[in-house]
UniProtKB/TrEMBL annotation, chains A, B, C:
NAD recorded as keyword: no
Domain Glycine transporter: 2-71, 84-155
Primary residence: membrane
Protein name: Trimeric intracellular cation channel family protein
Keyword Transmembrane helix: yes
This protein's UniProt keywords: Cell membrane, Membrane, Transmembrane, Transmembrane helix
Membrane topology: Multi-pass membrane protein
Transmembrane portions of the chain: 20-39, 55-75, 82-98, 110-129, 141-160, 166-187
Subcellular location: Cell membrane
InterPro entries noted in UniProt: Gly_transporter (IPR005115)
Domain of life of the source: Bacteria
Similarity remark: Belongs to the UPF0126 family.
PANTHER family in UniProt: INNER MEMBRANE PROTEIN (PTHR30506), UPF0126 INNER MEMBRANE PROTEIN YADS-RELATED (PTHR30506:SF3)
Length: 201, 201, 201
């Protein structure tokens, strides 16, 4: 829930900065928080998606909207905690997404891809609706951290050396650590074109 | 069908203004008319979605394209009727979307969210494909009217005081009235940033 | 597979030109190659979609990314072969998409619409993620070729004069020929607004 809340806050903040109205802010907050999970549930055939059948997500989105609109100065000062919870959410979503896909009897590739989708899908939908190229495709170690977590879950499930709970905890810690370190040291994945531009200078 | 037609006309008009070719105009007309219903059907597991298995929708989209391309000056003069039928379509889509979700045995939240999705999903997809921030997220009482209609359907279904048909009629009238009044008096939901801008002036 | 590869190369090239990072390029390559098929599978209720449950697609996307990043000058010179394989992919995707929908017991309209979706869906998702109006909606005989192929499959299936394999081969050849001729002679569908602009000059 802390992760969902951080995702909703990040959505509401982005929406507010683009001058959306109250409904728009709430819709974007909800989509960031639930969009990834909804795509995952559609892909594994779990209808209706948990994101829309569970009141909690909607309430979290409404609270996030209220906070962002009413106490914007507070939310702005909360930038660091929000990034912290966003990393928590990223880790949790990637792990639970991968676990849910495995639980529905799908293979490892489905689990890895849907783990990433759960973690980053909402953010991508936010960027598409606000008509900007999704941040996670341009830079930052974000989806890669989710990929690592989902891969650990799948690997742990195949090897079956330790219980699933321990695998999940390890995956969470690894993903969270990668993300926080990437934020702190401004790690980015290489972007090939930039490298080429440097060469041509 | 009048609602579907109005939606298709609005899609074809927007597509034509962006210099799309004949196929593009028809595709956007079809997506505005059926996109919301397709998402709803995917979410409740009703495959294949009615929008793509039913010839009528496609024919409506083709007729709307033909009219918009062949008789553009007529369509432009029809701006008021189109807004009128658009409000009819909005009400009908919100009510039938909520009813279909309830009919498939889903809970009230699913019905409300999918009622809104049915009503506004096509328009959002149009705006995303034409790369602009969806109008309904920025201003205008549009999704809010759909929300009201869907909520009335769900509430009427729970209370069960009067027959479902009467509930649907009341929801339709309320939604239609809100939308027409909002159009007439240029009602908008507050956008928090604008309010802040005024304060800082 | 040649078609999938051409689609993945076209996605990776477009992503590279927009300065995406390695993950972004690979994600776009994967989406162009599999996006259309995933939407089709969701619409016919074939979960999980083949695109995400089959390792081959992911590996093709990774190889395409590697080639585009490592040997960009080679890929750029391959522009003609890529357009050739893209036409092959377009034809194959349209035919197999329509066949798969028929195979799942859906009607002709579903098959035609999903044939087109399989063929062009990935490209549309690429353009939406890179925030540009989808090329196929603006000009070029592209979706129309896919439409023709899917229509031939459905018609052949109804008439049942010759075996399904022959129908598929004819549909492939017709679609491929239309696309190559359209590329060679720069055929476009008429765009109504341009015509009007000329009249007003």
């Amino acid at each position: 829930m802390a992760g969902t809340f951080a995702f909703a806050i990040s959505g509401a903040t982005a929406a507010r900065k683009r001058n959306l109205d109250l409904f728009g802010i709430c819709a974007i907050a909800f989509i960031v928080a639930c969009g990834g999970g909804i795509i995952r549930d559609l892909c594994i055939g779990a209808t209706p998606p948990a994101g829309i059948s569970n009141w909690q997500y909607l309430i979290v989105a409404i609270i996030a909207t209220g906070l962002t609109v009413g106490l914007f100065s507070v939310v702005e000062r909360l930038n660091r905690p929000v990034l912290f919870f966003d990393a928590v959410g990223l880790s949790l979503f990637a792990v639970t997404g991968a676990e849910k896909a495995l639980h529905f009897g799908h293979n490892g590739e489905v689990a890895v891809l849907l783990g990433i989708t759960t973690a980053v899908g909402g953010g991508v939908m936010r960027d598409v609706l606000l008509t900007r190229v999704p941040v996670i495709l341009e830079k930052e170690i974000y989806a890669s951290a989710a990929l690592t977590a989902a891969a650990i879950v799948v690997l742990g499930n195949y090897l079956n050396w330790i219980s699933g709970d321990w695998v999940a905890i390890i995956a969470l810690i690894v993903c969270f650590t990668i993300r926080i370190l990437a934020l702190h040291y401004h790690w980015n994945l290489p972007t090939p074109v930039n490298r080429k531009n440097k060469l041509t200078k």
